[in-house]
Amino acid sequence: MIELDWLLPLFDYAGIAVFAITGALAALRKRLDIVGVVVLAAMTALGGGIVRDTMIGTLPPAAATNIGYVIIPVVAAVIVYFWHPQVSRMLGVITVLDAAGLGLFCTTGAQKALLHGISPLHATVLGVVTAIGGGIIRDMLSNQVPEVLSDRQLYAVPAILGAAIVAIAWALDVRNGWIIFGATLLAFTLRMIALRRSWQIPATPEFTT
Amino acid sequence: MIELDWLLPLFDYAGIAVFAITGALAALRKRLDIVGVVVLAAMTALGGGIVRDTMIGTLPPAAATNIGYVIIPVVAAVIVYFWHPQVSRMLGVITVLDAAGLGLFCTTGAQKALLHGISPLHATVLGVVTAIGGGIIRDMLSNQVPEVLSDRQLYAVPAILGAAIVAIAWALDVRNGWIIFGATLLAFTLRMIALRRSWQIPATPEFTT
Amino acid sequence: MIELDWLLPLFDYAGIAVFAITGALAALRKRLDIVGVVVLAAMTALGGGIVRDTMIGTLPPAAATNIGYVIIPVVAAVIVYFWHPQVSRMLGVITVLDAAGLGLFCTTGAQKALLHGISPLHATVLGVVTAIGGGIIRDMLSNQVPEVLSDRQLYAVPAILGAAIVAIAWALDVRNGWIIFGATLLAFTLRMIALRRSWQIPATPEFTT
Description:
Chain A is mostly helical.
């Protein structure tokens, strides 16, 4: 697992930068002030990982010890704040990168849980939490129902797939960096196909009481 | 305390199933998608216990190590999603079971805190957090003011009573399973009487500034 | 650092009492019931510190072991609930005390993080979290966008200043109680000047996508 020890931080940094950008854009859309832009950038990027690390019991979480985890979201927030016309013209690219971040976070999140002795089933859940937790906190801070819980997009499903593959491979004693890459690629690809074809999960049945 | 070691998990499973059902029903009422139904079921069922375990410092929390804590909320969410007409016809039963879950969670939550060296005063608070925390998180995820903080029902009060009895008995060195049963029954009964007689806590005084 | 060991708890108690009062007032404004008034008082007062202690990894957090941290918010909530006309006539005083609480929490929060081996950069962040975290949780529980993220007031900025001074002094090996006092006073003074002169951070640029 030597390659992984070296790659995991790079995976994390890349995902954190992209998620921070989407958080900052969401804050601007909500007309928050610069404090709100920085906080939403940071929480979107780090929120899922903080919850994961708390649930694993590895405190302080990476977000409270890693210098990059503070610098990257703040830089991303400042860039989006001052150059948002340019940034928002790249929304197509950002959507692709967000799908990549989703793929990265679900697999590296599950991997970190497994490395700390969490069961494959719970590691799958914590991988998904890593991937979608930041977005949920972002929407809660924006005072809206979290998109991932209500917009019928295939967003959590690719994360479940990616995290589950890593966890199942681990359970079968297949524990190398290629599994992470493969599962990340698969989750990313499924997310991209769902975006392109506008796939939706079924509408919730009518309900009244 | 041998009986308790054996009974505590059963208490927890029962409460988790009921709380998951009420969370899933709340998600359907809010027209969340299946992801939202599963997440609200899980967070309503597990949220209070996760906060309690974090506050006690027993990480990973039970929710991240116990297989049943993942299976039960997912199964409950799927059942509610597909059979909600049948489930919602049993709302009377669910209300009774939710009152039982309230009683169970406040006492077992306080007990777990006491077993880990938390003071009786704080154990009372953590028992209440176990009982009402999941519902608060459910309502925050649904983008509404938590019912337990605003609807004037006697919901937190029975939880305070149940948790306080367990904590006071512990302080008096009365530490057996019957205390848990008795306090659970008392909290449950008070909740049921309050429901039947539509008891309310006083309206908040008018306030303007 | 002998003086600090003795003074830190007093600092904390003072800040907690003031923040609890502002939380209880916010709950009354939202027409929450007495349960909501107590919960908002407690979470406004303790929420930032609980998040800080979790991020530092010092669990149970102070809020789960210190008797005063339970008593003070409950007493503050009850006082506000029953004597809110008198309390709200002192809103000028409360605003000053809230500024003092902001100054206290950002410096003592950063200090606690530093004492537990957190880096100066992260300690600055955790100092700010201690100061503004409770207010954010209060607003999330009230189902509104957190004021500190959107109202363009100089509220987070003085906290950043105060926490950063403590962290930088620590990095320069200047570690005595006077730094805490000085930084607290500076953060408080900046907050008060900003209030008096109605200073605002710049409006967020128009944004549409």
